[in-house]
TrEMBL record, chains A, B:
Keyword field: DNA-binding, Transcription, Transcription regulation
Provenance organism: Arachidicoccus ginsenosidivorans
PROSITE patterns with a match to the protein in the record: HTH_LACI_2 (PS50932)
Protein name: LacI family transcriptional regulator
Keyword DNA-binding applies: yes
Domain HTH lacI-type: 6-60
Length: 358, 358
DNA sequence: TGGTTTTCCGGTAACGGTTGCGTAAATAAA
DNA sequence: TTTATTTACGCAACCGTTACCGGAAAACCA
């Protein structure tokens, strides 16, 4: 099966008219008689004619659409971000087309190449596997408007929108220390990701400010970024099998999926939270407030992040040339303290801050 | 800013060669001398030349990509389905581009129009607002390969892949009756959706088979399909404010988001599950096994559903003409009984069936 | 009647790429 | 030397659309 659309040429033949006549009739040109216009418009309507946007793209070098490159939207944070982006573009008449990279550098390259000729601008969150962004750089130098969101790439100077990962991690770690934790572990995603690095930096600083000597055994990265449960499982096994005096009593997880999987691990192994291990993690998952024990999270302003990034891209699309200055917008995540990390004040079960979604 | 890619024409001028010579050199034609080939290839590499796929599309009338139309992937079920689809296409060299409709008929029409010239085939799950699918029919009659998944549309005869919504709902309702419920309510999504209708039919049949007279007040649809919490809240309010002898003691929710929101409602209002109300709902949300009480669900084979639908589309893409017979693949969902619906055997807390994700 | 303007429409080029065909020069064969 | 063949390249058409240009016929003016 193959799609065979109606063309202007076809209609011209059927109506015994010139191609340009039909085109102009459809554009309501004053150069065409009312009668001919009516004939053409009626026929086009009957055949459900739609101008071929591919042909228009080729001519006008404009696609009226933008592309979003996402790692995996099997992740509430990502889908929330995209939701924030879409509304802005829709109101401006842009179509939005989304492509997943599945954390694979190869897929990412193909996806970007695919989109590059088909969209007018790109919103990119780099995959965790990506090391080389020469293809993006090249695209950018040839004039493609590109905005990074969430996971940035310092090699390319353009607008970016990110969360304050450093502070989010700092405050979360600080909170664990306040609860009396002295051996706080860190399980991140892929070591290559900017967000993981920033979060680790915040974590380390908080420990240093708290006068804690970090044991390298507390820090774990996940080779594939934590997409699969088994990755987190391995890291958790390593942590929980440390000798008792080295075993962590607090844990900061630095990625949504890892947070959920760490929680799953602890429940499965009957390790009590926060008793044996106090857990707080980056997460925009729904239902974290109703799991038992309820889960403390660092929750990003996902929709807002999407909106801001979309605004940046729109400004690039409208600007005549590459702007001289680039902005990095930073959004503060929300720290939501719940049971899983509340060692003190166990009498006061009320969470510190709860933000209702919807 | 505007993307200005390198063209073959540009390179031909720079190298003092004909356009066709450059083209053939890049295709390693035997008609071009080795020396010229080397010059051209080297120059193309230096400039990072990529053939314009738009131009190729226009010529070859083939896009080597397929489109997925999704309602909202802010929904684990949807993202899982898409994940299942992608892998099949990727291995066949197709790019996948995803567009959201946000349950809006208008956006859906625009999305489909946008994709129609840019992809070779379409995987569609109809939005809950859609009543008229003439544009889809027209497209289909012009030869566009289209496969429906999850939410079908009987007006258009083509391949489809769906869950056995009827049986899923039937078994779930049956389970509630087995637990001693006698007043089982139903909260669905939009009345227009095929899946909601099928699920309601299963629910009604189970009640009939159980000898229960249905009170129409037990049945609620949600105008916008339940995207926002408030919709479910209104329905739940109505249910729970019924006089005590009419108030439901069991509830089947027929859509992922509605299930989560109903659960949220019950927890917020301190209505005990399953004591006051036994809850089971369609849901592919993660973490339902760790909420307290743990949530009984009808869980669809989402990834599988995606794979099967992808296979159907691939077969359409390869077939010469419109096939004479169309297949509807039906996948049985999994009923997972947990605490929220287990009125009996409260001593035996072990869930009946638990399927670990990942 | 002859010239000018207006009306209405068609041909053609261009967007970027591939491909069939034509062709000049170089080489080989006679 | 003449002819045939090969080599190596350019021209032009095509995909669907729009824009510029040009032109026939009708209408207008003198």
């Amino acid at each position: 099966m193959k799609f065979e659309p109606v063309t202007i040429k076809q209609m011209a033949r059927d109506l015994n008219l010139g191609i340009s006549t039909v085109s102009r009739a459809l554009h309501d040109s004053h150069e065409i008689s009312e009668e001919t216009k009516k004939r053409v418009v009626a026929y086009a309507k009957k055949l459900n004619y739609i101008p071929n946007p591919i042909a228009l793209s080729l001519r006008e070098k404009r696609n009226k659409s933008i592309g979003i490159v996402i790692s995996q939207f099997n992740n509430p944070f990502c889908s929330q971000v995209v939701h924030g982006m879409e509304s802005s573009f829709y109101s401006q008449g842009y179509q939005v087309s989304i492509v997943q990279t599945d954390e694979s550098a190869e897929k990412e390259m193909k996806a970007i190449q695919y989109l590059s000729f088909r969209v007018d601008g790109l919103l990119v969150s780099i995959s965790s596997e990506t090391k080389n962004i020469d293809h993006l750089k090249d695209l950018y130098e040839k004039g493609m408007p590109i905005v990074f969101y969430d996971r940035i790439c310092a090699d390319l100077q353009t607008h970016m929108t990110i969360s304050d990962n450093y502070r989010g991690a700092y405050e979360a770690t600080r909170h664990l220390l306040d609860q009396g934790c002295r051996r706080v572990a860190f399980v991140g995603g892929a070591v290559t990701q900017s967000i993981v690095q920033e979060r680790k930096a915040g974590y380390l600083q908080a420990l240093e400010d708290g006068g804690i000597n970090v044991d390298p055994k507390w820090i774990h990265y996940l080779p594939k970024g934590g997409v699969h449960y088994v990755e987190t499982e391995v890291a958790m096994d390593r942590l929980m099998r440390l000798p008792k005096n080295k075993r962590p009593d607090g844990l900061l997880t630095a990625w949504d999926k890892v947070t959920a999987d760490a929680y799953r691990y602890l429940r499965r192994h009957d390790i009590s939270m926060p008793g044996e291990l106090a857990l707080i993690g980056f997460s925009n998952f729904p239902l974290t407030d109703f799991v038992s024990p309820s889960l403390s999270v660092v929750q990003q302003q996902s929709e807002k992040l999407g909106e801001v990034a979309a605004g940046q891209l729109l400004s690039l699309l409208q600007s005549k040339r590459k702007p001289a200055k680039f902005h990095t917008e930073v959004l503060m995540p929300e720290i939501i303290i719940r049971e899983s990390s509340s060692k003190l004040s166990s009498g006061e079960k009320e969470p510190l801050k709860v933000k209702n979604k919807d």
